[in-house]
Amino acid sequence: MALDAYALATQPGGMSFIVNPLDRCAERRGDSEWLARLMQQDDARFVVATAGKLVLRRDQASMRHTQVEAAALGQSAAETAFLGLEPSGAPLFACTATLSDEELEIRNELEVIDLRSLALRRDLPEADIGALAQARALTHWHLSHQFCSRCGEKTAMAEAGYRRDCPACQTPHFPRTDPVVIMLITHGDLVLLGRPPRLAEGVYTTLAGFMEPGETIEDAVRRETYEESRVCVDNVRLVLNQPWPFPANLMLGCTGEALTTDIEIAQDELEACRWYSRAEVETMLAGTHPEGHRIPPGISIAHHLILGWLQETAS
Predict the structure, then answer these.
(1) Which residues face 291 on adjacent strands?
(2) Torsion of CA 214, 218, 224, 230, to 10 degrees
(3) Nearest Cα to 154, choosing from 141, 140, 164?
(4) What is the pLDDT of residues 285-310, one digit of tens each?
(5) CA–CA dist 278, 284 (Å, integer)
(6) Which terminal Cβ of the chain has fewer Cβ within 10 Å, N or C?
């Protein structure tokens, strides 16, 4: 299955969060004077987040705030992360609002919205959605890692937001990205789909789970599939990947072939799991399934793993 991630993202209904053209300038992030100058540039812009949402300018349908606007929402230079230089050369930063969601939502010029809803709405360029994914993951990490995990002292932002340092024990802390395997398991003309309780009514998706220490991607696919369904799997291949900023995951999209077909839901992660034929999945994609079953929306890697399988089996 050969899937072009960029093509999938940039076509209508494409996968979100994988287009991000920002130059992150990693080699200069330790230069505080350079960063301070960037922050004061007239073309500097700021993405503003709350604990769980993003703050957009409603009047301009934009994620970009000037520094004056960001400061009015609570932006602090000491807790502002550098996202990168845009293709135009303008610097883009990310910061957290000190005002609550409720205080922000009453302001007519602002829209407070979660990133998933924003991606589903598809009214921003994919490059902006990719930058927002970077901003959302980074601001979430800073909000949830204010204190040193070694000694408990309050930490300070360093390296333009890509590190937090402990002044007491000198321990550096780095942003987390948690890898998740998500796998399309097939058996001939059948595909294995499950339904976690958290999904919207009627949605069935590919199985998925977090990787564990000391595991290869292939081993994680085999283990997670067996744990969730008791189906044994082999011939695992990594075919696609996607940043998933909820809060900071990397989805490793894989395919695998089932060695067994009997299903037993062994944990409470799934409320249903079954084999679907290609014809049945086509009705799920078209919205005509007789029981109202459907696949996840196009922003997700699961949708494109399923779509790639349909296209492959049709050829």
Answers:
(1) none
(2) -130
(3) 164
(4) 999 999 999 999 999 999 999 999 99
(5) 10
(6) C
